[in-house]
TrEMBL record:
Top-rank taxon: Bacteria
Keywords: Membrane, Transmembrane, Transmembrane helix
A Pfam match: HXXEE
KW Mitochondrion (keyword) present: no
Tagged with keyword Transmembrane: yes
Membrane-crossing segments per the record: 7-25, 82-100, 106-125, 137-154, 166-182
Protein name: HXXEE domain-containing protein
Length: 207
């Protein structure tokens, strides 16, 4: 568990690179919708790497700028809760649509999550932190956004999406955000948590 707590975001980057290599070598044989969904999964892995490894100071932004925490190294977000929340988001919420590409609303929900990341990182956090950049913003703009637009465009070009898909995807997205992000942080916050972020993950922002 200690290994995962320390390296989960690096493992994600490695998996993302392997997937990109696989897609590149088999681009002509993989159904296009499957390729797009794989790239959506890669997008969240890159996003998490940017947030927690390089430049990696999202925990500082989250705990200090958003919550004015007096214990920013472990409250309200700590290393344990960050790992659990992000692993579930990536390997359940984002990966599940890859295996069920015909369930359109299942694939649309992560796309909505990607668009939400642009607003969250580009507007909400930057206003609170009084900055033009925070970890997660670049991947949201240059990966989440184009992949999401590509996916929606593909669905419309092939007449695969309906109004009910939009409704169900919005409901699923809202439930996922509430359970995984809002309640996830509430359930696992602990001022006495021993799972503390590194100084780099905090003070690169604080400085």
């Amino acid at each position: 568990m200690n290994f995962l707590r320390k390296y989960w975001q690096d493992i994600g980057l490695f998996i993302g690179i392997v997937i990109c290599m696989y897609l590149l070598m088999n681009w002509e044989t993989i159904p296009r919708i499957n390729s797009i969904l794989w790239l959506s999964f890669v997008a969240i892995l890159l996003h998490q790497f940017e947030e927690y490894r390089w430049p990696g100071y999202f925990p500082g932004i989250f705990n200090i700028a958003l919550f004015k925490s007096e214990s920013p190294n472990n409250y309200p977000l700590n290393k344990q809760s960050a790992m659990i929340i992000n692993v579930v988001i990536a390997y359940v919420f984002y990966l599940l649509p890859v295996f069920f590409p015909s369930v359109v609303w299942l694939g649309m929900a992560p796309v909505l999550m990607g668009f939400f990341q642009i607003i969250f990182h580009g507007v909400v956090i930057n206003i609170r932190a009084k900055r033009m950049y925070n970890p997660g913003l670049v991947s949201a703009i240059i990966v989440h956004l184009p992949v999401g637009i590509w996916y929606i465009n593909y669905l419309y070009e092939h007449h695969l999406i309906t109004l009910s898909d939009w409704i169900w995807s919005a409901i699923y997205f809202a439930i996922a955000v509430y359970i995984l992000i809002v309640k996830g942080n509430t359930w696992m916050k602990n001022k006495n948590s021993i799972h503390k972020f590194s100084q780099k993950q905090l003070w690169s922002f604080h400085k």
